[in-house]
Amino acid sequence: MKIMLIEDHKMLAQYLKTDLESSGEIQVDILENRQELKKKLKEEAYDLFLVDINLDGLAKGENGLKLSETLIREYESKVLILTGYNLDYYQEKAKEIGCSGFISKEESAQSLLNKIRNVCLENKTYFPPKNHLPEKLTETELKILRLYASGKSRKEVAKESFMSTSSLAVLLNRIYSKLEVKNYQEMVQKAREIGYIDPF
Question: How far apart are CA 66 and CA 88, in angstroms?
């Protein structure tokens, strides 16, 4: 099996490569920088991509879920998310875009190897059991939430969202209700815990 590991922590990537290749059944290529991805995809056929969510060290602002979506949509690739950000929102997003699984970096190398084998050879999928997720936010509600979390004032958020402050207040109350919070601070904190706002 041939795998590409997309992980921006070089030491961890090297450790995983060594550990996985010690089985004798897997060859691992580590993506060194984002610019070489298209070239590698033209030169090599990969059975699976192991992708971290936070890839800021690979390219500023790089998001592993967006990259995974591209790999799945444009290259019909199998992708396993391997991350330390074990948040419900990320799990749901990974499932929604067609990933084959969502695996915590806290798992053992042997467990990861077994899952890789099962995804590649038997088309199995691996997602942790769902925790209670609040009612899903709409794209507009997510935009409002992220604008607030970036430090914008109510007037600025209303202006950027093309709505009046009274319409914004109604929408904000709907967000509070869905997230089961009472104020702005709780809203931002809960959004980070769920994964609506990147914690990194």
Answer: 16
